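Materials and Methods. Structural model of Putative iron-sulfur protein. The 480-residue sequence of Putative iron-sulfur protein from Amycolatopsis vancoresmycina DSM 44592 was retrieved and submitted for structure prediction as follows.
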Amino acid sequence: MTFLGMPPFPAAARTALADTQLRRNLAHATGTIRAKRAAVVAEVAEWEELRLAGAAIKDNTLRRLDEHLLTLEAALQARGVTVHWARDAREACDVVAGIARDHGVDEVVKVKSMATQEIGLNEALAEHGVTAWETDLAELVVQLGDDLPSHILVPAIHRNRAEIREIFRRGMAGAPADLTDDPAELAGAAREHLREKFLRARMAVSGANFAVAESGTLVVVESEGNGRMCLTLPEVLVSVVGIEKVVPEWADLDVFLQLLPRSSTGERMNPYTSAWSGVTPGDGPQEMHVVLLDNGRTRALADEVGRQALRCIRCSACLNVCPVYERTGGHAYGSVYPGPIGAILNPLLKGVGTDEQTDSLPYASSLCGACFEACPVRIDIPEVLVHLRSRVVDAHRGGTPEPEAVAMKTASWLLSDARRLEFAERGLGLANRVLTRFGRRLLPGGRRALSRLPWPGSRWTDTRDLPAPPRESFRAWWRR
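The predicted structure was written out as tokens:
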């Protein structure tokens, strides 16, 4: 779920901000996706009604999630699918590795899947001698470059064409010596590289965008056709599905298949929408397994404020509008789930108070609210961020207090007694004379601010305005 060894967000962000090439790549890519999304969303007059419908379907499903999951299990089993339940990443990885072992498989092809990234499936399979080949183009770039994904939809968004060409030339067996950075050539090289793997693989691994309970149908939407190849050619198909992906009825897809493509790729519909319901003799995989994954989702479900994060349909719209993500990129979040949704989803799934990196994520936001406005299922990410910040604070009570906690406690003591407050106000005039030695500057509207305070006050004035204290308090002025 989180990348081992990653520093807390502030430290990682500071490093990312110094990488000018990264910032150019991100600004270009997110700007392009934002513009495409805005254009296709503007075509839908009832867009807000669709958002409300999507949120309502998800919330109603989560309220009866146990019932819908049992319905899904029964429908899948009736269609010849073996259903496995996994409480955590280790159990899920063991199930997939066991299936590969039972079939004597030493390689699998994979459809792009956030759930399998979350549980570290590729690394777990490698420990069992099984190679997992990513077939999504952006995932392939990340894999060949021995890199980490930095975006939910476009994992290699931090790379430009020239960088991708070099990755292919170094890591792709049989890459043309004269390969250029032309997108068509790069895609052609990837196609040649993957074709033999599609034809050779006996087992495939997928996730699912949706799981329809009433019919036992899994749905994957994608843009390249690699998913269709993985879902139809191999003999064995294993799908790792988060328990929050269930929807009760087939009709519910009508809402989500309008919301998802417009919010993710800026398209009216995805080029490939694949739906499969069990085993069909002589057509497609002849053995199917579904791993229903918890891995912290029931913990998130128990959080009355945070459970709305389980509405997420992994469109990445919140990443593309986030000013913090655009400047730092996904790696700074140290997680498979970056950006605003990652800043709430990771602490909810993993729990706060466990490590410094996870606890830093709710603070990786300016709370501007752009993510909520873009979210197709109306997840109020700023509300959850503030909620999780309070949870982080509560988790660290009782130990050595942080400087911020000391400052807040002091302010509480001071402001809770009128006499103490009046005494402090008397000192403001003296403070004004002392502090103005460090310089003043004008703010918009004619207000004055201090230019810079000595340490530790400089940690504030280096990045924020500090209005100069008044020469006379209100109480003194009133008496006079």
